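Subject: sequence -> structure tokens, single chain

Hey, anyone have a minute? Need the predicted structure for the following. Not urgent.
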Amino acid sequence: MRKFDARLWTGGWALLACLFAGAMYAMQKGQDAAWDLKNYHLYNAWAFLHDRSSDLTAAGLQGFFNPLLDVPYFWLGTGWLHGCPRLLSGFQGLWYGATVFVVLRIAARFAEMRGRPFGYVDLLAVAVGITGTMVVSQTGSSTNEVPLALLVMLGFYVLLPIAAPATFGALRRAFAAGLLCGLAAGLKPTAVVYTPALGAALWLACGGRMAAFKACTVFVSAAFFAFLLAYGWWGWRLYQLTGNPVFPLFNQVFHSSWVAAVGGTDRQFMPKDLGQWLFYPFYWMHRNAYQGGNTFADSRYAVAMIGAAMLAVTVCTRRARQAAGAPSVRFLLLFVVFSYLLWLNLYSILRYAVSIEVLTGFVILFALQEALAAARGTEPKLCVIWAMSALTVLMLAFTRYTDWGHAPYAAVAFDVQPPQIAPGATVLILGQPNAYVAPFFASAASIRFIGITWLNNGAERFHLGELTRELVTGHAGPLYAITRDANGQDQAQLLRILPSSHLSDCQPIETAMERTLRGTDLSDGLRLCQVTQI
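Reply:
Had a minute. Here:
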């Protein structure tokens, strides 16, 4: 097996190279203009920075999400990097570069813990993970799944040595890893599955020893503390307002009077039948696999699933308990399996699985090594190299990447120019994704924004519906509405609130964020209208 100097791939120069590559890749993709960005990422950051407590559901359900992760992107895009949209994209790409570097460090640590030099196959395992469809497609975007994966992978990297017996400083490592993973979950709950998965994997990988139990206790305690630090203030704010600290999600548990007692989570991508429950990754191999409104193809998860099954068999044998069943490999296997099962049962939205995706290469590599070793008695290094190389080439060849939405670069980062309206007006945001226009009104500070979306519609008989009607019908000044052609149901909902109203004097909203890189106009008649009553 060809050897490499691990320091060349995991040192300071490697970090700089990864960060540079991540920034360059993000810059060439264009200006982020994803649906979620236009729906809530920009609005939430602006609302938090400007204390928009007078607004109501301007961004629908997503307007109640923790805004902290969105602040740096909005702050830079409206501040220092306002006139440098390419640099703003490059900044977002740094998260991917840092994640690649951490995965390289994980590869080097695995090689060290398995008692062999860092080599070519380790780079192939890294390449498989960092070229996955979800991590690559979200590089440079505002979805924030890549920064979360960076925090989780740092936690995994810090915990990994604890899987070796008599690790020095195990409790300190557990505490640091817990802080990282708890912070990820607190900043965005889509990462919440990884903390229990890591804790359980660590304990079981170490054979349930008392020392491992102590490390797990420290890990979970630190994670809970970090979660409270990142999310507790926001959860308390939501609880004071609505009676539900994760409003409007899981309201069947908290029973806020604002909305119905339902979960509110997005379940549309959950497995539809027994075949999908058992073999969901195999459904993502064909070119028209569908997730989150986009099509893609990715065989990494399916190959890794086969690899995980192979490893699960080998760790049950006596020889495996001595070799493949080494705690580091068991730790990886258990973390990936537990994370996948929790992810599958909670939301099954693939772009939330970046932390699983970037580790798929290691699962595949270790399965190959153990399978070939079992067949030949010893690990045939050349066979492993050729097999891993062939699989990597095949997986890359049949990968089809998706795009969450990019626009050509404009002169400024967020080129949105709504028409002028009088200060003190109320603007109704009819439908989604329209809330991103709100921060760019010249008199935005004195305007109240009220969203009328499916969330309000489902809460007509609850406090949210009552509050919406009171604010709309009780407004005494100018009343406007932002809408699109596709927002017919939301316009109909406005008519139920104001039966004698109609939209008039409509003006188009000039925005560069509704154009695709191919020149397609996605604005769908995005406009600002006066709401007048007969």
